[in-house]
Amino acid sequence: MSTAYPTTWRKPPQMIHSRALRIALALGAVVYLVLAIGTIEVNWARVVAGMERAQRFVAGFLQPDFTTRWRDISNGLMESLTMTFTSTVVGVAISIPIGVGAARNVAPRAVYLVCRAIIATSRALQEIIVAIFFVALFGFGAFAGFLTLTFATIGFIGKLLAEDIEDIDEAQAEAIRATGASWLQLINYAIQPQVMPRLIGLSLYRLDINFRESAVIGIVGAGGIGAALNTSLSRYEYSSAGAILLIIIAIVMMAEYSSGYLRKWVK
């Protein structure tokens, strides 16, 4: 049976039917934007000084120094890779039951509300804020970074997994229910086959994000290569900072190409 597609273009429905109100809202948005830009205070003397430092940084980036601070760079890199892998594995493992509980079509309402609250809390707090909190609790080092990235992974994977479960083909789930299957059998035979390829892709994507975030949270003392980068920048060692940035870019590119290949293989 062939699907009939429309042959003529139809204007989509408008949220605001009054033309005068639409124009007034558009003008109001433009005025607000102009006023907001006008409140930004720019210190042009600092801009000029910053441009000079930017030139020195670009020069150092083009002539990276991998040897002077190699011990710090290698230690920070190993910390970042360790935090990235462990936090992704632990975060995904915790996210799976939370994501299932946050799916309205398979979880009781009480469980749904609790799991949604956990996901909302994780997504509401940015990684740098969580890192500062864990550093204050557990001190400087990779453990605080591991907890931060795990916490962020739970909100990311849990939300997207829950949405994928809610968007499954219900016909397959109803067929499994009709056999008298238990709730665990429903999850295993009706839900899991439909969401597993997407879950693997999301996990690989989160692995990439966690490595980049490990460089950011290291600036506040949560371990990783970000600490070495912050030290190099604070000492104006732009050649060493350029070397660290090149390492980060190279690893992110390798992760991007590898995850793309794996996602294609899974599909």
Overall, the morphology is globular
Beta-strand content: under 5%
CATH architecture of the largest domain: Orthogonal Bundle
Low-confidence stretches: none
In CATH terms, the superfamily of the largest domain is: MetI-like
CATH class of the largest domain equals Mainly Alpha
Number of domains: 2
Q: Using DSSP, what is the number of strands? A: 0
Short structural summary:
This protein is mostly helical and 267 residues long.
Which descriptors would you attach to this protein?
globular; 10 helices; 267 residues; MetI-like fold; single chain; mainly alpha; 2 domains
Layout: helices, strands, pairs:
Elements: H1 19-38, H2 44-62, H3 70-101, H4 109-124, H5 127-138, H6 142-166, H7 170-178, H8 183-217, H9 225-234, H10 238-266
Helix pairs in contact: 2-10, 3-6, 3-8, 3-9, 4-6, 5-6, 6-8, 7-8, 8-9, 8-10, 9-10
Q: Describe it for me?
A:
This protein is an all-alpha fold and 267 residues long. The protein contains ten helices and no strands. The relative contact order is 0.13. The model has no long low-confidence stretch (mean pLDDT 84). Keywords: Cell membrane, Membrane, Transmembrane, Transmembrane helix, Transport. This is Phosphonate transport system permease protein. It is a multi-pass membrane protein.
